[in-house]
Amino acid sequence: MDELGRRTVLAAGLATALTACTTTSPTVPARFDPTDWEDVRGLFALDTGLVQTAAFVLAAHPKPVRDAIERHRRGLDADTDAYLHEHRGLEDDVRAAAAAYLGGSAGQVALTDSTTMGLGLLYSGLRLRPDQDVVTSTHDFMAHHAALELMSERTGAPVRSVTLYDDPHTATESGIVTRLKEAVAPNTRVVAVTWVHSSTGVRLPIPAIAAMLTEVNAGRAAEDRVLLCVDGVHGFGAVDLPVADLGCDFLATGTHKWLFGPRGTGLLWGRSWDALAPVIPTFSGGDSPGALFTPGGYHSFEHRWAVREAFELHDRIGRDRVAERVAVQATRLKDGLTTVPSVTLVTPDDPAMSAGIVCCEVDGVAPYDAVRALRAAGVVASVTPYETQYLRFGPSIVTTPAQMDQVVDAVRRLRP
Length: 416
Prior knowledge:
Shape: globular
Number of helices: 15
CATH topology of the largest domain: Aspartate Aminotransferase, domain 2
Helix content: 40-55%
CATH class of the largest domain: Alpha Beta
Largest sheet: 7 strands, mixed
Strand order of the largest sheet: 2-8-7-6-5-3-4
Strand content: 5-15%
Distance between the termini: 77 Å
Order of helices and strands: HHEHHHEHEHEHEHEEEHHHHEEHEEEH
């Protein structure tokens, strides 16, 4: 037996012993009721003295995720070599859990560290010709635009931006689809958009956009077909719609926002990967696209492996119930804010045109000043990180409908 073989056998033996003491501890309280929202909120270690409407920016870990991270951390600290060899297959478990949530197959899921990494892998790997172009919008996050700019520099394919709505509060499905359709040219190869705009809270009608592009693609050769690429991070985990049903070709997202997965984790989902070339060598075994496009190197494995628990918890609570919980609170918040004379609501009233993000303006109060004053009043809010800045809230499974009334009262007391 060669040295590698001896190391493998030794690692397996040691890891078996480690597994017995590091993978059997419960991850959810024995009396946890997934239908009880107070039990769900009790899984988080967040300061309960604050209304946490910025929790979607970077997730706090619920108990099942915390326990899984700690379990893997202990195993890696006790015998890194053995534990790593024994648990490499957990990436496949994460892909399987992701596929069960997303729709499609595990082979369609590449694991990443963030939405930004997913967008980088996507646009750095797309095969485009200089005579083709890309259509995007003026509303996307800077990382999306930057990734497209790098792609343009690499391929020579120009990027054109279109404004999808003039007033976000009155944005409509037909208006958005029409503007995108008018922007698509005979040489357009990619339409790159964002599911829910973190700048305004507008939720794009991705299925309707996909249906429009299906008509556009009729008769086009495979290499000229328009690909629909989506930054999905603020719809993923907040909207009850499997990604496979969106109709897009690719979707990049972090799992550390509305899903409340481990920080520093994400994924890139592809319906078909024929248009992409790998960018970073993989360490994953197998020949599926998901494995091939998963960047190699040593990661924060305790976090990556614990993504499975995030999906399992979300499924246990019920993705439909989570989406309804988010929508109910967002609607209650929007309704309340419209009663405040100093407030101008930015996000659409229509739940079909929005998700969890609610943006507004307060007369005479700069957004960052509002955030500081609200924190002093016990409300954690955020500011949209764009050229046009708004005060932003994100009700989720860690907040309650009654707390939305507290938010409205705190906003009502804001003064220039």
